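STRUCTURE:
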């Protein structure tokens, strides 16, 4: 039976608002930045085979904050190399924000981003796949990243297969999702049937992706990133920000108004359970640990 609950991603404006609040209440981007500055440079160093031009694809880039940091590390590892950066992002608001941020970086930095050519694809990952096939594109990519976006495709495995097929020799595909060991993993394992049975929102963790890759015999490297999210406001009945965070946590639009009392009570109890959160100094801190997977194109 189809769930009567609506997915949060159906309402882009509320999704973007709750995502923004999530970024403010969590160390999400901080822990990604630590990874990008400390671990990613070595990963980026081995792509390209000495080519003077690199093709990069960012899938589900959002406002591009993380993408621009990746591009800057790439530039440091491959100075003098030009970059073609394809951005695949269905939200026009997010694309607009990304363009704005890229422009500010462009005018404030010397030598700036003039070594990068941006191509803006206002489309979903599957729209991009179709576009690629229809146009008979033969271009190969050196680096592709999908950061916190595989939840929003119908078939995460098929999406990985397609983008992996675009990798050039020595190319790499980077995937970041919540870790199977995070509070998210626990929440989804418990309430997958109630929360995750819509067509467009999958409760997928890096644990699931690793099982998928293992079953296909694909080798990869993986990393765990420690991260936290302050969810204290969720426990104040009627709190506007708490409700936005709850929508984000459950991926359900207006969760507290539309979920059954039983589901709501169960989710609220689990969210502050030691399997998901620690409580200290009156704060409830949810385990937002992330997983990183890097797939190499060996042949
Ligand atoms: N990578 C960014 C944004 C993550 S939020 C970061 O980590 O900060 C997820 C992004 O995926 C949103 O910008 C959303 O608009 C986008 N998205 C949603 N459905 C998508 C789909 N089917 N294909 C590609 N991107 C999608």
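SEQUENCE:
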């Amino acid at each position: 039976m189809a769930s009567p609950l609506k997915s949060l991603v159906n309402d882009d404006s509320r999704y973007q608002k709750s995502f923004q609040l999530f970024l403010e209440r969590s160390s999400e981007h901080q822990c990604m930045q630590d990874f990008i500055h400390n671990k990613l440079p070595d990963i980026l160093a081995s792509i390209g085979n000495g080519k003077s031009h690199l093709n990069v694809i960012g899938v589900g880039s959002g406002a591009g904050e993380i993408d621009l940091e990746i591009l800057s590390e790439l530039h440091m590892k491959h100075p003098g190399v030009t970059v073609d950066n394809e951005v695949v992002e269905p939200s026009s608001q997010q694309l607009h924000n990304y363009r704005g941020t890229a422009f500010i970086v462009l005018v404030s930095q010397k030598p700036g981003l003039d070594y990068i050519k941006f191509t803006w694809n206002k489309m979903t990952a599957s729209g991009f796949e179709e576009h690629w096939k229809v146009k008979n594109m033969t271009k190969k990519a050196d680096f592709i990243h999908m950061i916190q976006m595989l939840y929003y495709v119908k078939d995460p495995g098929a999406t990985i297969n397609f983008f992996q097929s675009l990798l050039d020799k020595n190319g790499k595909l980077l995937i970041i999702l919540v870790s199977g060991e995070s509070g998210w993993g626990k929440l989804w394992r418990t309430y997958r049937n109630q929360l995750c049975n819509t067509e467009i929102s999958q409760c997928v963790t890096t644990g699931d992706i690793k099982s998928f890759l293992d079953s296909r015999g694909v080798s990869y490297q993986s990393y765990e990133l420690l991260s936290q999210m302050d969810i204290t406001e969720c426990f104040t009945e009627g709190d506007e920000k708490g409700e936005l965070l709850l929508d984000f946590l459950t991926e359900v639009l207006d969760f507290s108004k539309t979920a059954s009392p039983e589901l709501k009570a169960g989710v609220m109890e689990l969210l502050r359970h030691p399997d998901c959160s620690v409580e200290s100094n009156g704060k409830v801190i949810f385990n937002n640990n992330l997983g990183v997977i890097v797939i190499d194109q060996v042949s």
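REMARK: The longest helix spans residues 92-108.
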